[in-house]
Amino acid sequence: MDPVCRRLVLIDCDNMLDTILETVSEFAPATMDISVITGCDDLLTTHGECLRNRFGREGLQLTFVKGECTDQAVLQSAGIAECDSVVIGNLQQCSRGAIDDHDATIVATILLIKWIREQAMTDISSQDTPSLHIVGLSGYKDTQLLADVLALSSSVPISVDMLNLDFLMSGWIVQVAAEPEVTLVFRELLASSAGSELYVRKGHLYVQGPNDTAYFREVQYAARRLGQTAIGFIQCESQAVLIGVSADLQVSIHDRVVVMAEA
């Protein structure tokens, strides 16, 4: 099992910092070191001190580093060479030109992070090279391709996920509009800290209709009676994984049902 993230660097997340910290305090390990790279004077003084005191009681150790993410010294001061994860934010109500600049800055930042990590690893005698995961908000889907090229060319383990919010939000909205039942899935996956696990179960536990088939709505009902939430199924012949499917889709007793249950 991969180690949990215990050291996080936040870059350009000033406008959503409070929300991020709330989420981290709810979902993250009991103790966690977080470095925030910012140019906001308020975060470096009064508001930052309030956040440090508030979330310090919940096990988050906050450090604020003033500067730009494209500055090598700033990244090193924030602990980029040792951290487990990096979040690159700030993409709200941007003009097309601003999006161009934003994505260009992301690529430049990833390139600099890659260089710092590679240099740091040459100074470490241990064979255990720590991995790094970078998550960022991008304006263009092609930015992911550039990020992947940089990650694959790295001599140290780096993975990158660029999230295009317009693409994700439009997909979520359309799915919820077409199938309101999928709302529960999104809420469980994105907004619940109680703990849920995904299971793949044999179809005969949920399919009780004639001819060994049932509508997916009947499968969902059978799952609810067991304290579970059916979110899709795996077809026995094609092995296709269908998630968030129509309630009118037929499920065979030979298919496998994907359910969500409390951990």
TrEMBL record:
Domain of life: Eukaryota
Protein name, per record: Uncharacterized protein
Organism of provenance: Tetraselmis sp. GSL018
Lineage: Eukaryota, Viridiplantae, Chlorophyta, core chlorophytes, Chlorodendrophyceae
